Each structure stands twice: as C-alpha cells, then as structure tokens.
Amino acid sequence: MSQINQNRRFMHCPSFREGMAESDQSKGLTPPDFGKPLVGKLIPLPAFDNVATIPSYVDLLDVRRSKRNYASTPMTQEQLAFMLWSTQGIQNFRGEVATFRTVPSGGARHPFETYITVKAVEGLEPGLYHYRPTEHIATKRCTVERVGDLPSDEKITEMLAGQTWATKAPVVLFYTCIPYKAEWRYVDMAHRVMLIDLGHLGQNAMLSAAALGLGSCCMAAYSQQACDEVLGVDGLDEYTVYAISVGTAKD
C-alpha cells in the first residue's frame, strides 16, 4: 500500500468499542496527570472581563481571517489571558479522570500543552512561558510559568520553517501533545482523535483573537526538531504539533 493510501486509512474510523477494550483505562490503570510538574515561577495574569471588542458571533465568523503582518503594538496581559483560557482553560473536573475545558476533546482527554514565546506583552518580561490551566482553577486567574529565555528571531524563524513574518508577532502560541493522555483511553485510535481535537483548538484561537480585535495565523509548517528542542520536550512522550501567531494586524 502506498504512503498516500496508508494516510487515507489513518483517517478511517475503526471500531471504538473493540479498541477501547484493550485500553489502559479498561484495565484499571491510573490515568495520566492533568498537568506537568512545575518548573518555573508562577505568574497570575489579570482578569479578562470585558476584554473582547467584537461580541457578536456572526461578526466574528465574518472577520476571522489568517493575518501574517503584525504591528509593533504590544498585547496586554488581559488579552493573553483570554487567549490562553479560551483555547485550553479548565472549567471543571470529573474526578481524576477528565477535565472539561473551553474546547471539545474526545473523551475529555485534552492531551495538549501550551507554550508561549512572549516578545511584547505589557508588563511581562520577554521569554518562553508555559500555561498552567490547573492553577487557573485554584486562583481564578490564568497562570503562566516562565520556563526559559525568549528565543532569537532567527531561532523562531527556524522553529517555524522559515516563516520570518511570524517573528514580528508579539506572541506565538506553541502547542505540544502528550499522547498518552489520549492513548490511556483510545489506544492507537487516539492519534486520529487528537488531530480532530487540534482543529477545535485552532478555531477557538482564531475566533478569540478576532474577538479581541487582533490578528492570528495557525501554522502547521514547523521544524519538529527545532520546536521540540526549544520547548524542552523529548519528541516522543511530548512533541510539538501546532503553532499560532497572535498580534495587532497591520492589514
């Protein structure tokens, strides 16, 4: 079978009932943790009440477009908090098994982590940050941790497969996947489900940016090795799967 045909088969839907019978969940194994161990300083971001400038859903659908040309205007911390909450914010827990968030996810598994290259956000030191949605529940604030220095423009360009325009964005959201969070329930069917989930996340991000009067662009083109290296993930148990630039659009 050719690689194209194999990839087409990957999109087929197998028998979930039979497949899940072999899952670690069905075997009674402990589910993976909701969040990663803390490695940096926790920074609560301000509340984002009334930060949206385009409240109409119809208008959001009408103005949502990919924007690749950004002004030097910094984002506010409120805008960043809204972007983080609206794409991966936890709204509730179901015991130690599942989280309910602002985006849908198969089996409520939510296998993604959010890393942020902060270049220009008011009152926030430039650097590499990681979103902590579990702390958001406790503090009622979107919380991030600083996990590294801001990569150079050259390194961000390398991470994003030569897309130099993205280095102008005040913020780039990098999403990684921890596959076992979904494999625990769906075994080898998990990877198809996670790709669907990633689409939900990306659409929320673009609509949220539009609601803030900002531009955004979802990027599937990136360097796996460069992204995983900068984000400090191993490429197997956690790896980069998506990137979204956000900022004030010039056009």
- Gross morphology is globular
**How much strand content do the residues show?**
15-25%
Low-confidence stretches: none
One letter per element, helices H and strands E, the order comes to: HHEHHEEEEHEHEHHEHE
The N- and C-terminal alpha carbons lie at a distance of 46 Å
Write a compact overview of the structure shown.
This protein has helices spanning 3-10, 16-20, 57-63, 77-88, 133-139, 153-159, 180-186, 190-211, 224-231, and strands at 41-44, 90-94, 98-101, 112-118, 127-131, 143-148, 171-177, 215-219, 239-247.
Provide a descriptive summary of the structure in words.
- With 251 residues, this protein is α+β, with helices and mostly antiparallel strands.
- 33% of the residues lie in helices and 21% in strands.
- The strands form 2 sheets. A 7-stranded antiparallel β-sheet has the order 1-6-5-4-7-9-8, sandwiched between helices.
- The longest helix has 22 residues, at 190-211.
